[in-house]
Amino acid sequence: MSQQKPPKKYQKTINTAARLSGSAIQMGVVIYLGVWGGKWLDGHFETENVFLPICTLLAVAISIYLVIQQLKKIND
What are the TM regions of this chain, as residue ranges (predicted)? Predict the structure, then answer.
């Protein structure tokens, strides 16, 4: 028995969903690393919550930038 290939439109939808899922995971990892890095810097330099908000906001900005770049690739 031969299996039929899914229609092109269906395949493109699956591909887009997979890319967006990957972007969400990437965003979570980048933000997690930013928070972890901020906590580590605060502990290393013995400061109280100086680097944590800076690194967190920087990580959020980087992750948003990466998602926007990924969306541009999907729309092309």
Answer: 20-38, 50-68
The SS3 assignment for 4 reads coil
How open is the CA angle 25-28-33, to the nearest 5 degrees?
125
Confirm if 60 and 31 have CB atoms less than 8 A apart. Answer: yes
Q: Minimal CA–CA distance to 29: which of 54, 66, 1?
A: 66
The amino acid that residue 37 corresponds to is G
* pTM of the entire predicted model: 0.83
32 pLDDT tier (thresholds 50, 70, 90): very high
DSSP 76: -
For residue 27 the two structure tokens come to: 């965003």
